[in-house]
Amino acid sequence: DIIRRLEPFDCPLAIQNEYLQNVGYKDTKKIQQMGLCPDLSWLVKFYAGKPMSDGTYSRNQLTTYAYVRKGKLLHQWVRRLCVVSGTRLLIYRDKSKSTKPTVVQLAKGEVEEVTVKGHDRCLKVTSTQQGDRSVYLSFDSDTDYSKWLRKTKKATAKLPSKADLSNCHLEFLPETVFINEDLKCLNLRHNALKERPIEEDIYTIGWLDDLPKFHSLCSLNLADNNLSNFPAAICQMKTLTELNIASNKIREIPSEIVHMSSLQMLHIHNNHLNSLPTEMSEMSSLKILVLAFNHFTTIPEVLLQSQNSKSNLDSIIMAGNRVEKLPHEVLCRMQHIKKIDLRMNSLSLLPSETAKFHFLELVTHLDVRDNQIKDLDVRSLKSLEYLNCERNGMQSLQVNGSSLKNLYATDNVLETFSVNPKPEWLVNLDISRNKLPCLPSWASECFFMVKLDASHNVITDLPPRLFCDARKLKVLNLSHNKISEVPSDLQNCVLEDLHLEHNCLTLLPGHLMLQASKLKYLNLTGNDLQSVPQFSFTHSSRLHELYLSDNRLEDDSIPFLCTFTKLRILHIAHNRITEIKNRDIVKLENLLEINLSGNDLRTLPSNLGKHPKLQIIRANGNHLKELPDFKRANNLKVLEVGSNRLSDVSVTNLMGSQVKLLDISGNPDIMVKSSELRGLSSVKKICTVDMRGQNRSLLDLRQAPFESGGCPWQTGLSLTSGMRNKLGVSILNKPQFTNEVEGLFGVFDGGRNDEVIKIIDDVISDTVLEEARQGSSNQNSLKYAMLSIHSKLQSTGQKVGAAAAVCHLKKEDNHYSLSMANVGDVEVVVCRRGEVVPISRRFLVQSDHQECNRICKSDGIITEDGRVNGVTFQTRLLGSSFLYPHVIPDPHLVQMTLHHDDQFIIIANHGLWKYITYEDAVSQIKNIPDPVIAAKRLQDLAQGYGSKESIGILVIRLLLSEKERNKMKTILQKQFQAEQELLAVLKERDVVRD
């Protein structure tokens, strides 16, 4: 963060109160209370005096302990901490660097290798800028000696051409910088530099006015210095070719900028500009002008052609401005433009405007994402190579395909679109998340197309020669459509990634695997497949990942699936598999992960217990009674066998394996002795997960959970780290939060960081109780609890953040209430009468236009990849306070009365919601009484659809009425009866086989 000096009329208390209001504190009393909180100093702090900063040339420092003698013979050798940084030698008296160092300027000095009695490895360093002062350095090792010889010779041989003084809290430039008048590149980003005040009595050096002293400077970065005015002195710097003065508060560019005759690149984005001086049209060297995230309402004159213009600018880079129209008088002067970036403006581009697009015949790049363009007709842009029109609510799209290479039109409402002539040069096509009933007829004729994404549409049929004629097509995503048949013509297919999950497939082409021989990734989860094609292999398949969860596959498919010997990931969860034989599974010698959950398995192949590479086994929700011995599975890290019928299982043996995450919950007949766990905790860290978080986690679900009395809800959770080593998600699961009838639940997602969620876990319950004791309403107590946690994250919260959702269920006088607060992309949905009721808000850049406007008003930017200031996709988080005021912790709040026909609540992070819609999630689990099995099923499906992130899911099954309790009992009894019948059939099959 920038540390700035308080101005004479600044009021610290007013600054602090404004900060608290901006992060979410609206109540005056709470603001006053927070002002006394010691944790507040981690968010906003006032210093007496100025913080020390190290204004060195370089961050590439060399440090060691050496014996030092200061030239004269009478001086003794003393051991000191020595640091070479850029062109300076710093000698410290103590190892903590707490004292002021002796500074030796190395620029234009000398370094000699000398021999001194008793010191074999000795250098003599002489500073010509300090009166030929000499220092002798003696080193203990040859390694240090050679490193220091090279480093000091480099420092004295010539002055560096670059100086990086960014993030140094500088108000003035250090005098040492001006020694090097031949500096070429100077980075002063993220400081608090100022211009020399008129009333200065004593002349001092180090103001922005002194920058012209660098006669050879070519590149200058003054971004993020809180400048209100363009520094006039910069206009004198005629050698500059690149100037970055972005992310300030500049309202006007002086006309004198025209004197910067060598300037080629000018970055003035993220300021408060609404116009540019007309004189800039005379800057003939200027090639790049970045004007994004300012206040322009029209295209400035300097970018338009005129008789007197000498400008060579051919790009309009104006994302995040306020441009609403491109009138004829502007378009007719844009004939020289090749690139247009107008994303995140207010464009509607009416037919009267696009009719004049023939003036833009040179345009190759057009980016109009996140505008209000309902109908886009760019048929007149014959040179167009790149078009991005995502998230416009667009209903029709017409494009000229003569030169088109990249087309991105995701997240609109297109039912059809037109590209004429046929786009023969097309490489990437993304038309996902629309309402398209079919692919364009020319899709299979694009010879150069590498990637096609048409997921989340309503496509039923595919072009018959899609796989064979698209000779370079490597990635094809057709997931979440209504496709019932895959084309059988697969000759010359070069696909590597094929996504067909969540469709209506019942059969696959007989030679899909054989002819699509380059496939590495195949996803067929969520179809209606009863079998897979059977044939003998005569070649080596390249398939690495195969997803077939949520189909109707039976045992006869297993031998064929196990012929893919290079498989690393195999998901066949939620099918009808009853047996997997050792002779089949042993062929998968490269397997790293297997998911067998939700089948009818009674045993696991014993070979899984000695697989050399296997890291993850998931086999929840089967009929397992015993497990293989996993002591020889040297790489096994995750073993999930919850909700089975395990009985004769030695927990000690399981713990003796390499397993780090073990889930054996929901196995009523397992007896776990605390002594077994205590004895192993000292050997290594083991996590045994109780997926219910309540005392009756091992009870038979057919009885206790649905009896009246106690809390009228049951909970189940599922957690996985995905492909990451760290579990970045945690779950709060307290069905009985206090002595009252109330529960507290939550999911917290720290992304790739687990430090922040550990802190939240430790403080969340006490913080909610503390806020409730202060008399806040349920809704406000959650809000202020989350804001309080934001400050309790302390130094960790300054660097990283977490998405969060917290739900509080409580019995009131004659009803039950639900209070919810969320930030980030952890979301909450309620199922009411089988229908979805979303109650959270998804704080993501791409889905929340209001939040994008708030960020822009707070002088933040959204980078091209959709991140706030290039850091995060989320607009509200607990922590990440370095992104204030753009990212804040103020949560979305909901208070509602629960109905008797409310069935369950799902709280989950983006690892689920990114891959499964609310409607799919609800339909998948609404008839699953056991919330643990429901949570596990959602996790299996998310991973089956390709989720590799950390996933945290909490399902709260509501039993608010006798009708709902009886309904769940009936479903359980039917499931139990069907299970018993299946087990009887399997037992009979075993007898016949024997």
UniProtKB/TrEMBL annotation:
Could you list the residue ranges forming a coiled coil in this record?
none
GO terms under cellular component: cytoplasm
Q: Which residues cross the membrane?
A: none
Q: Which UniProt keywords apply?
A: Leucine-rich repeat, Metal-binding, Repeat
Tell me one Pfam family matched here: PH
Q: Which InterPro entries does this UniProt record tie to the protein?
A: Leu-rich_rpt (IPR001611), Leu-rich_rpt_typical-subtyp (IPR003591), LRR_dom_sf (IPR032675), LRR_domain-containing (IPR050216), PH-like_dom_sf (IPR011993), PH_domain (IPR001849), PPM-type-like_dom_sf (IPR036457), PPM-type_phosphatase-like_dom (IPR001932)
Give the matching SUPFAM superfamilies: L domain-like, PH domain-like, PP2C-like, RNI-like
Query: Which residue intervals define the domain PH in the entry?
Result: 61-157
Keyword Calcium (UniProt): no
Q: GO molecular function: any one?
A: metal ion binding
PROSITE patterns to which the protein is assigned, alphabetical:
LRR, PH_DOMAIN, PPM_2
Domain (PPM-type phosphatase): give its ranges: 714-958
Q: What is this protein called?
A: PH domain leucine-rich repeat-containing protein phosphatase 2
Q: Which organism is it from?
A: Magallana gigas (Pacific oyster)
